Amino acid sequence: IPLQVLTLPTSPYPDQRPGTNGLKKKTHVFQSKKNYLHNFIQCIFSSIDLRDRQGSTMVVGGDGRYFNSTVIQVIVQMAAANGVGRVVIGQNGIMSTPAVSCVIRKSKAIGGIILTASHNPGGPDGDFGIKFNTANGGPAPEAVTNKIFQLSRTIEEFAICPELRVDLGTIGKQSFDLENKFKPFTVEIVDPVESYANSLRNIFDFAVLKELLSGDNHIQIRLDAMHGVTGPYVKKILCEELGSPANSAINCVPLENFGGRHPDPNLIYASDLVETMKSGQYDFGAAFDGDGDRNMILGKHGFFVNPSDSVAVLAANIFCIPYFQHTGVRGFARSMPTSAALDMVARATKIQLYETPTGWRFFGSLMDAGRLSLCGEESFGTGSDYIREKDGLWAVLAWLSILAVRRQSVEDIMTDHWRTYGRNYYTRFDYEEVDLDAAVEMMLDLELMISDRAFNGQVFTVGEKKYQVEAADNFEYSDPVDGTISRNQGLRIIFKGGSRIVFRLSGTDSFGATIRLYIDSYEKDINKLFQDPQVVLAELVTIALQLSQIHERTGRRAPTVIT
């Protein structure tokens, strides 16, 4: 008997505007508000032209967090009712964000839905997110997310096939006959690792990496998947295929609540890995976030590689990776708040550099136009043009490729880089879950201050050091591909000599606002390359706090996180 397709009435919600990483809310919002989940999914499908939707392929995957499987069943029911012909899903609903991007591109899908709140906590009291990626495999551009939001404000009904049930655990195809449909609706459950692993085999020299990890003079590595989606990928690729010992990878079983921890690969939330690396037992360490797109790199004795430095090192050593030996290098890019370390490499190599707003979709536009090969963000994201998402495991294999060619330690590679290009001392302060009105008012007042003509040229004195303002603005980006202008992307204060203070309101948290303060200071004196960043940057931090009055305006006496 063909399954029934229903059109059910609903009412709109005013708060379904997707951010740079989709719609993130507390899990209970999706669970308890009537049709909240169904509304947003319908708006995703409705944002796609009906002619394009009919008979198309859609990819679905998630990071395995609580509520993941339930939502996938709803997506499949609604995909069938909205004319999609085939849905490709990772086994048990698991598929990393970079793997989804990879599968979208390989299967020529119309897009994909990723269920993740990235590095935010999971569980019934945690966060949940729904993100739409378009046919290029990358996050939906602003025109699409705006359309989804506008649809969400006027939605009156949604289509669903409520009796359709999918077996997520069995690899293979499942077909369903629907009423008034000539062709069966197909669901294909796939190995979430294999297609993605095939792409990596074409990018890196796996024989060289296997020798590095399991040959006669192999290095010792420690990888922490933080109970996120990357665990199965690490086990299959690094351990089973490249020969790293099974005990070199920890926390590799994806858990609905990430083991009760925050799946964020930084010095605070991955502190267990940091402490283990300090023992000196391991030569290389890395941690991954919940959905597998972020990474943290550590060297022996816990040597920390700042993400802004990481992308610069990859750029400087890019031909250690076979993929770029074949394709060449088209361009580099970084997000505006990321340190200017990559700029120094671009300048030395005469390769075009792009400075974009935060959000991977800006990189995707450049990649689609053939202008960009390597990019990164200060928020532990790095990637290349083989997909349209940042990719934690790709970054780790890129670093290991450099280690294999140069036969130096992580610390020696980093210090050689600083001696060659200079060092960008860098830090980021996060003030999380602050009152939204207070945050917005502070940013507006700060913008008013730095927009005053008298602000340019102003000198700030801290101790014996003087900083003169060279420029200040609210960052605006004109996409060189399509001319789209993105305004209000962060407040910048640039001093003579290249030091910068940046303030930005982040929209990635599900409760309250996050104010991010970034401090970047360039040093080329070889005698001053090995100082504590927090000490070096203390004077600029003092200026930033004095200008913004952030502690007084938000009631926070200190940042929640310092990176």
Automatic annotation (TrEMBL):
Under Pfam families, the record lists: PGM1_C_vert_fung, PGM_PMM_I, PGM_PMM_II, PGM_PMM_III
UniProt cross-references to InterPro entries, sorted A to Z:
A-D-PHexomutase_a/b/a-I (IPR005844), A-D-PHexomutase_a/b/a-I/II/III (IPR016055), A-D-PHexomutase_a/b/a-II (IPR005845), A-D-PHexomutase_a/b/a-III (IPR005846), A-D-PHexomutase_C_sf (IPR036900), A-D-PHexomutase_CS (IPR016066), Alpha-D-phosphohexomutase_SF (IPR005841), PGM (IPR045244)
Its domain of life reads Eukaryota
Gene Ontology cellular component annotations, sorted alphabetically: cytosol
Keywords on this record?
Answer: Cytoplasm, Magnesium, Metal-binding, Phosphoprotein
Where is the protein situated, by its record's location annotation? Cytoplasm
Q: Name one GO biological process term.
A: carbohydrate metabolic process
Q: Which SUPFAM superfamilies match?
A: Phosphoglucomutase, C-terminal domain, Phosphoglucomutase, first 3 domains
GO MF annotation terms? magnesium ion binding; phosphoglucomutase activity
Provide the Alpha-D-phosphohexomutase alpha/beta/alpha domain boundaries: 16-156, 195-300, 308-421
What's this protein's family per the entry?
Belongs to the phosphohexose mutase family.
- Full protein name: Phosphoglucomutase 1
Native source organism of the sequence: Cyprinus carpio carpio
